[in-house]
Amino acid sequence: MVSVDSDIGDSWNLKAFNYLQYIPTGLLSQGFISEDVPHFSRGVFHNLSSLVFHLWSLVSGLSSLVFPLWSLVSRLSSLVSRLSSFLSGLSFPSPVSRLWSFVSFLGIPTSPANRSWTMGFTGIFNTLPSFSTLFFAGLGVLWLHLVYFTENSLQPPTPDVVPFQSYDGMELIILGSGTCVPSLTRGSPASVIRISDQILLIDSGSGTLERLLRVGITIHDVDVILYTHTHPDHVADLVPFLFASKYDWAPRDRDLTIIGGKGFSTFFDALIKTYGKWIQSELFSTHLRESEEDTHHFPGFRILTKPMTHLPESIAYRVETEDGRAVVLSGDTDYNPNLVKLAADTDILVLESAFPDEERVKGHLSPSVAGRIASESRCKKLVLTHLYPICDTIDLKSQCASTYKGPLVIAQDLMRFQL
């Protein structure tokens, strides 16, 4: 509860705020708000109280500005009125007469037409708004500028978001083509495979939830999540995914399947132990499957897995439709015969290529090694991803071409492939 300094507590505004902030407590005590309501729902009342207080403070501030100005205008008006009364008692020609005398002095002919023009001009002059009217109109324009135009100029630009569209075929979307190293052009690893209206998310590095929205997919659209291994750059958005699924304005209400390698259940249990109810929902169940060399069947497609050479739990995935279209994703791995077998004759083979040939490290592929796997598996198209920043300074295609002559694509974030 917010406390107010006793030295300024006598202010009516602050007293009002003190009363307002007790509204949620009163509603709770009277049974209007249940203890089961999430904390942020009850917090809405506190936020509304704060909003009312700040709005009242704004009105009070404007009043303290307007009333002195109005007093000044009133005094000026009184002064002008007294001066006008004083001048009216003197023998002066009328404004029209003075204007006419000035026209005559300039030598302009005093024809009836000119006299009519002069009278008309004077009439227009006499109908001009008063000083006070112009003053307050100016204040209004200034207020509109500060509140509307300035506020809108501070709004961030609207990102490019592709509306979700139904698709009857199979589609691969590279959400993140980078690594754990921050990059302005490449996000952490994540991909999507769409099979008709079913959405598979493969890995979820940092920033995945935002990039899902950019391709027109929400977290509630995802049916299955596949994890190649549990390095942070591949699982960073798992907790935010589950947290948002529970606390979204319209929470997730259908089950979620998550597949990972050997030991993934232990990893997931540790997350539950750490975050508890914040990532556990009563509206949907999370079904975990551990996989090594297995096949998982789903309506309209199947998922095949084989162990890779990176971490003990590392696996690669082959997603295959009933009519034989297939996409294979390696995750992080070194050269492994299992990958060649899994990728046999696949339509698209997505391989990591973390470093150039001359910088290759154990547990990862380089362009020429990836090309070798592509050639041995007879894949129809090779996509290189999981690229460290150094890769953007090297001609990866030339290095890969030394071992692979087929279609080659260097992945970029939000790149799409339709099968």
How much of the polypeptide forms β-strand, as a percent range? 15-25%
Structural class: alpha/beta
CATH architecture grouping of the domain at 170-418: 4-Layer Sandwich
- Uncertain stretches: 1-46
Mean of all residue-level pLDDT scores: 80
CATH class category label of the domain at 170-418: Alpha Beta
Q: Helical element count?
A: 13
Going by CATH, what is the homologous superfamily of the domain at 170-418? Answer: Ribonuclease Z/Hydroxyacylglutathione hydrolase-like
Widest sheet, order of strands: 6-5-4-3-2-1-14
Helix-strand pattern: HHHHHHEEEHEHHEHEEEEEHEHEHEE
Please state the CA-atom Rg, rounded to the nearest Å.
36 Å
Give a quick account of the main beta sheet: strands, pairing sense, barrel closure.
7 strands, mixed
Shape: elongated
Q: Could you name the CATH topology of the domain at 170-418?
A: Metallo-beta-lactamase, Chain A
Distance between the termini: 57 Å
Fold topology:
Elements: H1 12-20, H2 23-29, H3 39-88, H4 95-105, H5 112-126, H6 131-153, E1 170-176, E2 190-195, E3 198-202, H7 208-214, E4 222-226, H8 232-235, H9 238-247, E5 256-260, H10 264-275, E6 286-290, E7 295-298, E8 301-307, E9 315-321, E10 326-329, H11 337-342, E11 348-352, H12 367-377, E12 382-385, H13 396-401, E13 408-410, E14 415-418
Helix pairs in contact: 1-3, 4-5
